Amino acid sequence: MSQIAAGREEKSEVQPISREVLIPPLGLTGTLNCPSEARAMVVFAHGSGSSQFSPRNIRVAEAFSRRGIATLLFDLLLPLEEADRRNVFDIKLLARRLTQAVRWVGNLPDVGHLPVGLFGASTGAAAALVAASTLGDRVGAVVSRGGRPDLAGDALGHVRAPTLLIVGGEDSDVIELNLSALERLKGKKAIQIVSGATHLFPEPGALESVIELATEWFENHLIGANQQSAKPDDSYLDARQ
Fold first, then answer.
1. Rounded to the nearest 10 degrees, how much is the dihedral formed by the CA atoms of 180, 181, 183, 188?
2. Which of 162, 165, 169, 172 could bridge to 191 as Cys pair (CB 3.0-4.6 Å)?
3. What is the CATH number of the domain that holds 59?
4. Domains: count for the chain
């Protein structure tokens, strides 16, 4: 683990308050985690075939909580809807559900005042970008993990939130799709390639790299702590060892 990541772990004593929630209007089930003195809220959008109980997203959410970031993990579809595989890949439908969740969070008394970021994986990344294009300034930053941002289509050109695309270095087809999507995004944008990682980042240290990169992005662009040096260009390519 890098020195940056190790330093973060030293500040990991915050115990979040976790509660199960039902998100209107359909009663989608989710888990809301809110550490004391939370500085931001990140809403997760899982990928196809996954759920709010994705072990990878849970690990990322736990790391965010240790850094003072509240999180919402929820199911984008009702159980009966999941049986129809067309719904799993219906990006417009998933984006509507995500948009509803963000608006619902904004009305909660304990976290509604927090700046909101989106963290999407696989097809959930496309839903996050479509939702960001709809919600405008309400979304302060977006991070995609092993995502398919290309599936966001024309919405890419309307996203203004700073967007980070994280891809495994061995996920060659998805790298190309992310590079193509990066060109179409507007505003602050970046792609980070985690060397040696495959699509789900199961390799030792790979998901830790994702956590470090995502946390940096949200702290710099969502929370506003500008700890990194300014980049000379709006987009950049980086390979993490």
1. -150
2. 165
3. 3.40.50.1820
4. 1
| CA-angle at 185, arms to 172 and 46, nearest 5° | 60
Query: How many other C-beta atoms are found inside a 10 Å radius of the C-beta of residue 119?
Result: 32
Exposed / middle / buried, residue 207 (Cβ in 10 Å: 0-12, 13-18, 19+): buried
224-240 residue pLDDT tens:
833 333 343 444 454 44
Question: How many Å apart are CA 214 and CA 145, to the nearest integer?
Answer: 9
Which amino acid appears at position 31 of this protein? T
Model confidence, pTM: 0.85
Range of the structural domain that residue 127 is part of: 3-240
Q: Tell me: the pLDDT tens digits for 84-109?
A: 888 889 999 999 999 999 999 999 99
Query: Strand 189-194 vs strand 139-145: parallel, antiparallel, or unpaired?
Result: unpaired
DSSP character for 230? P
Report yes or no: 78 and 28 within 8 Å, Cβ to Cβ: yes
Q: How many CB atoms lie within 10 A of CB 103?
A: 14
